[in-house]
Amino acid sequence: MSTAFIDQGRGTITYGSAGPPPVFLQRDGAVGLLDRATDHPLGDRPQYASRIQAAATVRKGAAFALYPDGLV
Fold first, then answer.
1. For residue 62, which of 18, 24, 19 has the smallest C-alpha distance?
2. Are the C-beta atoms of residues 2 and 20 closer than 8 Å to each other?
3. Which of 30, 41, 47, 50 could form a disulfide with 26 if both were Cys (CB 3.0 to 4.6 A apart)?
4. What angle do CA 13, 14, 16 make, to 5 degrees?
5. Which residues contact 1 (CB under 8 A, 6 or more apart)?
6. Are 39 and 17 in contact (CB under 8 A)?
7. DSSP annotation of 25
8. DSSP secondary-structure letter at 24?
9. pTM here?
10. What is the signed CA dihedral for 68, 33, 64, 40, rounded to 10 degrees?
């Protein structure tokens, strides 16, 4: 599971992920992983714990791919 907030005015995405990191493709063809805020799968901890988040710069026209990790 991933969550993201995209601020188009600032060109940033703030995100967190509990699974495989989202992939992004910049308009110029550059590819990257949003992997600075990956955390344990949801339900892995017996009590509530805050989740980590990170921010990245993205340019207009970027695309994001979210994919499952295969856990059911």
1. 24
2. no
3. 30
4. 125
5. 17, 18, 19, 42
6. yes
7. E
8. E
9. 0.72
10. 40
